[in-house]
Amino acid sequence: MSFFSFLKQNWPELFTLLRQHLWLVLISTFVAVAIGIPTGILLTRRKSLRGPVLGVANIMQTIPSLALFGFLIPLPFIGGIGTRTAIVALVVYALLPIIRNTVTGIVGVDPNVREAAVAMGMTGRQILWQVELPLAMPVIITGVRVAMVIAIGVATIAAAVGAGGLGVYIFRGLRQYDNNLLLAGAVPAALMALIADFGLGLLERYFSVAHKRRAGTTSGRKKFMVAATTAILAAMITGIYVGSRETRSHSVQPQSARLVVGSKDFTESAILAEIVAQLLEARGVTVERNYELGGNLPHDAMLAGRLDLYPEYTGTSYTAILHHQPITDPRAVYEQVKAEYAQKFGVAVSEPLGFENTFAILIRGAEARKLKLKTISDAIPYASNWRAGFGQDFMSRADGYPGFSKAYGLKFAEQPREMDLSLTYIALASGKVDLIAGNSTEGRIAGLDLFQLEDDRHYFPPYEAVYLVRQDTLARVAQLPEVLARLAHAISTEEMRQLNYEVDANKRNQAEVVREWLNRKGF
Amino acid sequence: MNEATAKPLVEFHDVGFSHLSAAAPIISHLSFSVAPGEILVLLGESGCGKTTTLKLINCLLMPDAGEVNIEGKSTTAWDPIRLRRRTGYVIQEGGLFPHFTVAKNVALVPALEGWEPARIRNRVDELLSIVGLEPRDFADRYPAELSGGQRQRIGVARALAADPPLLLLDEPFGALDPLTRASLQREFAELSKRLKKTAVFVTHDVREALLLGSRVGLMHAGKLLLLETPENFLKSKNEKAMAYLETLRVSAGSVQEEAP
Fold first, then answer.
1. B91–A contact, CB cutoff 8 A
2. What is the pLDDT of residues B135-173, one digit of tens each?
3. What is the pLDDT of residue A177?
4. Tens digit of each residue's pLDDT (9 = 90 or more) over B106-128
């Protein structure tokens, strides 16, 4: 599919994401200006505060954005998942340039001019408003300009906490190795940054003293100024109105049967979440979707009460959340997880959905056939010539790389490359690496001619798919137990692979794929 | 001159001022007074305390010792804002607001004082004419579009705007080329005579001091060495004063020698 036909087909969704993105950027820049400029002014009046405040703002800006989102999730009021958290994070990043430039701009006012202002009998307030701020304005606007461009960039990551925006396309594009999606996310974001940079650049030039020339253009300049201000205000108001309408439309729903469904940031998790969401909606429950949350954010969000339900794998809960050593008996893992979640978190575990998504150790099909490899043990002698590439998840968790390499005594040619999980399939297929740890239900395994080596030493613990639900939600939403009961043992590994393939390889809309599947199953 | 009878506008009584970072006081035991209509020129090299003296008058600085009285009232008792609006202030390079037009710069104090717009406009036109600039040509320009001499004229016009009884001038003509400086000095001398303003004028140029001052105060190391009329200053046997006068003769002499 060409990029333009993709745009044509997905225009409404792209427009929504664009609007969400713009709203995130505008509101956060607005808040950062409202906080940053007064703070900057205060710092010019209280020199002793300057070092500490700028230091803190500096440190805040160096926090990696995903980590910052992680910190924010459990916090009351400003935290959680969704737009609010993203705005808080964006404001944190936007503050430093605004504060710093406000200070620099005001401190940089010609001391002769300031002295004249004092000597003419201007009060402190008059000097600030009539002399310091106007003269510092170009520098302050530069700060806003930098802040806004940063916000446009960081807002793409906001998709990881369910705040939407163009990052949704970028993350999805990375996962599905779909250049159209990547471009549809990245190009508008880049354009937005360029336009913001250019627009604020004009504003900056308008305020700069070097451009204060009579040359009979006063009225022309005034007109331009009025037009520019109007345009900016109109854009902001529209953005804020549209954005707030969107937020409101969520919040005015009836409270009785309302529920937030989350998912992790990969296709299968989103599909499983969508299945439950559609079944609930068919039964009159209002569902808010918070898909594609990174790392363990769904778990944190659920404990914080921001999420009612999300799909999980027993093995992940067992090792990554409960920190047990991996074991191989599926039943034992399931029972243990169920008992501990109920007792520790007040979270119920549904019946298994019927398939496992375990780590699949993959090599190229051609290589497997040439070397006649079937099991991981078969591959041990060749591994010392191979490069491995693993997702961040696999590298860090207890049942991941450290235990795996020890269990099989595997040594690779070099330290395994850590990369985005979805990219490892492509890296393997294109020969950049020789062995990866993928997901057994990955739709692209057949498509890319990859071969799954059998886990002959039964190292990987069972990863049965289940739904995790807050117990209070289960009690509150009457339709939920019935829906979960229907889905017990209802999805085979084959079916799951097919669903994944439809979305990942055939680039189809997941809601549509799920709807078809539900119809076929007669749910 | 009726110095003896008129109530002095500015009085310094044994004033001292020190800066935290400096060991020696910047000025010490300074006493003098300025009568209405008088132009007192403070002459001295940089760092002698003449600018500090000026700033003590309009509350930009407060004395550590002694008392500065303006119109008979101590500067500590004045509301600084009120005092400053009754005191015109001219500094080197004018200190004009670069983002204000000439008209807005000149109108600064009247606008702060809440004058009617029409009255402000008339006053601005009047002042621009007084300092020799055609209002129609200059009112809407920005300082960056003016020459140094023109900026300095605007600086004087701004200081005169609200018709303050007292003018303070801190080396106003210091940064100008010699020809412009000479013509501005001449015009200022005429202007001050015509407007009967009281002024304290700081300079390091002895020629300027003798030309403009009704009295010249010679400052050195924070002290007033001499306070004389220009006539008496020329006859002074004070070592410093003679050194200053010497520079006049030397430069005049060298110019004569160079002449063909």
1. yes
2. 999 999 999 899 988 999 999 999 999 999 999 999 988
3. 67
4. 999 999 999 999 999 999 999 99
Rounded Cα distance, A447 and A454, in Å: 19
Residue B235 placed within a domain? yes
Is there a contact between A305 and A471 (Cβ–Cβ < 8 Å)? no
ipTM of the complex as predicted: 0.88
Flag whether residue B115 sits within 8 Å of chain A, measured between CB atoms.
no
pLDDT at B20: 73
Q: Which domains does chain A possess?
A: 9-250 (1.10.3720.10), 258-356+463-521 (3.40.190.10), 359-453 (3.40.190.120)
Q: Measured between alpha carbons, how far is A371 from A378 in angstroms, rounded to an integer?
A: 9
Residue A63's pLDDT is: 84
Range of the domain at B193: 10-86+165-258
Q: Beginning with the edge strand found earlier in the chain, give each strand of the sheet holding B39-43 in spatial order.
A: B87-91, B166-170, B198-203, B39-43, B215-220, B223-228
What's the number of domains chain B is made of? 1
**With an 8 Å Cβ cutoff, is B114 touching chain A?**
no
Edge-to-edge strands, sheet with A465-470: A286-293, A258-264, A309-313, A465-470, A347-349
Q: What is the pLDDT of residue A249?
A: 44
**pLDDT at B83 exceeding the cut of 50:** yes
Q: Any idea what the CATH number is for the domain that residue B16 is in?
A: 3.40.50.300
Predicted TM-score (pTM) of the model is 0.71
Which residues are registered as beta bridge partners of B27?
B17
Burial of residue A422 (number of CB atoms within 10 Å: 0-12, 13-18, 19+): buried
Q: Tell me the average pLDDT of chain A.
A: 85
* A113 vs B: CB within 8 A: yes
Return phi, psi of residue A370, to 5°.
-65, -45
What pLDDT, on a 0 to 100 scale, did the predictor assign at position A211?
59
Question: By three-state DSSP, how is residue B165 classified?
Answer: coil
What is the mean predicted confidence (pLDDT) over A329-354?
Answer: 92
| Non-local CB neighbours of B122 within 8 Å, separated by 6+ positions | none
Q: What are phi and psi of B43, to 5 degrees?
A: -110, 140
H helix or E strand, kind and range, residue B88: strand B87-91
Q: Which of B60, B95, B99 sits opposite A135 (nearest CB)?
A: B99
Pairwise CB contact (< 8 Å): A120 & B96: no
Closest residue by Cα to residue A314 from A306, A298, A326 = A326
Give the relative orientation of helices A267-282 and A493-504 as an angle to the nearest 10 degrees.
100
**Which residues in chain A touch residue B80, judged by CB atoms under 8 angstroms apart?**
121
Three-state SS for A478-505 is CCHHHHHHHHCCCCCHHHHHHHHHHHHC
Task: Give residues with Cβ within 8 angstroms of B242, minimum separation 6.
Answer: B236
Mutate to test the interface with A, among B89, B92, B171 (most CBs of A within 10 A): B89
A139 and chain B in contact, CB less than 8 A: no
Record: contact A210-B158, CB cut-off 8 A:
no
Give the 3-state secondary structure of residue A436: strand
Cα–Cα distances in Å, from B176 out to A214, B92, B109, B244, B252?
24, 9, 25, 21, 20
